[in-house]
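Case study 2.
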Amino acid sequence: MTRIVVGLIAFLFLISCSEKKDKKVQVNSTVVSNQSFFYPYDTVPKIYQYREIKNGMYEQFHRVYGITRTNGRHILLETFTQDGRLTETYDFLLDSMVVYDHLVVGATGDIKPAVVNKNKLFPLDGKETHFNSQFSGVTDAFVIAYDSRRRVNAFTKRDILSKKVDCMKLIETLTVTNRDDKLALKNETSIDIVRYYGKSIGLVEWHDVSDNQHYILEDIITQNEWLKIISG
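Prediction:
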């Protein structure tokens, strides 16, 4: 009888260990799956050309490329207007997917480093991410703050670049705060945005929940091709 009880305990222990192992594999699988929807690492810059389909005249360009530093591999994402003007840069540390640096371009064209208070912008699991950065505006007394909270909503397929693409759908609440410390004035605006990241591609589509603005990836081109477009 004693041997039967001991054997039963050992059997239950093995089942418990097996379940824990399976859960661990499942969690790691989810992390890898989510990260596969981010931009692929490549040291050759690629230009993502987006078109605003509510008004086909508006475009936006994202320049994406990888670099290696002493702390590991990074992916840089630079945002440009349709006339080629740089507006901001996000530097992602690839191993952890945190925002290592955030640079913004001021009204006079000067590049300013933002203070990154919360550094999670791309969700690796089901938890909500929180990104928060702030930087000075026209004067030192004028402060602008970005606050982004994102969560995975679904995995779906979208028509991108003339084919069906596996996508991760994110819902983002973006809050922009303008504060004038000298005059003690504050203005805050929030908007909900739907973003789609294509597997092995990166950001392929986004729009506000009211669909007043809707950008979709139109092409991925080389830097030389892009320079010809913005130079007229």
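The mean pLDDT is 86.
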